[in-house]
TrEMBL record:
Annotated organism of origin: Gossypium australe
PANTHER family, sorted: WRKY TRANSCRIPTION FACTOR 13-RELATED, WRKY TRANSCRIPTION FACTOR PROTEIN 1-RELATED
Gene3D superfamilies in alphabetical order: WRKY domain
Residue ranges annotated for the WRKY domain, each copy included: 124-189
Record protein name field: Putative WRKY transcription factor 13
Keywords (A to Z) from UniProt: DNA-binding, Nucleus, Transcription, Transcription regulation
Domain of life per record: Eukaryota
InterPro entries (alphabetical): WRKY_dom, WRKY_dom_sf, WRKY_plant
A GO molecular-function annotation: DNA-binding transcription factor activity
Subcellular location: Nucleus
A Pfam family assignment: WRKY
Main location class: nucleus
Length: 207
DNA sequence: CGTATTTGACCAGCGC
DNA sequence: GCGCTGGTCAAATACG
């Protein structure tokens, strides 16, 4: 409950529009139409220039627990706030479609393909946002050209291989970049008291 | 005392 | 092949 309140406070601090104007610094920023909710967000391609692997990565933004209610009424149900596709993200887009649509099972690891990865950015004084799941920190690393370390977390649930990375934006340390990799195979570890049905549906997709 | 976090070591992938 | 870098492991440490 304490963390939940913290999360909401962070959302209130979020700056409408221009939210992703500087990340990644050398990357093309994609735009999306206004989202019709209280928190305006943009999606961007995070084939991160600081990551020498430059992996194709699908990036999108999800509703906070607080905004799921609004989404439920505005859009007929909780869903992604925005989504962009780049030419380099074809595979990830396909994975995402599976998440959103037919919900195929067990497609992540065969053929050695990568887990779907999602990233969002929040202005926050704390690094770890409460997303309803329990995480265990397993590493921390100072990455090149940044003064803030990157933290690595794994979902504590058995058989759930979802990971997330948390780092602060070099250009603006107030901004927290959270990158999720993989899909949860379970519900959140704590109850979100209201709108449980729709929330659990969304959480089964991502976190 | 059990669990979570910290942190140095190690490993793999990539570019030169 | 070598060095650099990001990601992970695991022993040590901190914390409740």
């Amino acid at each position: 409950m304490q963390n939940q309140g913290l999360f909401e406070e962070q959302q209130e601090m979020a700056t409408p529009m221009g939210f992703f104007s500087t990340f990644p610094p050398n990357n093309n920023i994609t735009s999306c139409p206004p989202l019709g909710c209280h928190q305006s967000l943009k999606a961007f391609d995070i084939a991160a220039p600081d990551h020498h692997h430059a992996l194709p990565t699908e990036t999108l933004l999800l509703s906070s627990p607080k905004h799921k209610e609004h989404l439920a009424s505005d859009f007929g149900g909780p869903r992604l706030l925005s989504l962009q596709r780049s030419s380099a993200n074809f595979w990830a887009w396909g994975e995402l479609n599976e998440c959103l649509g037919s919900k195929k099972n067990g497609v992540d690891d065969h053929l050695g393909v990568r887990e779907p990865r999602f990233c969002f950015k929040t202005m926050s004084e704390v690094d770890v946002l409460d997303d309803g799941y329990k995480w265990r920190k397993y590493g921390q690393k100072v990455v090149k050209n940044t003064q803030h370390p990157r933290s690595y977390y794994r979902c504590t649930q058995d058989n759930c291989r979802v990971k997330k990375r948390v780092e602060r934006l070099a250009e603006d340390p107030r901004m927290v970049i959270t990158t999720y990799e993989g899909r949860h195979v379970h519900s959140p570890s704590h109850d979100l008291d209201d709108s449980q049905t729709s929330d659990s549906q969304l959480n089964n997709f991502f976190w």
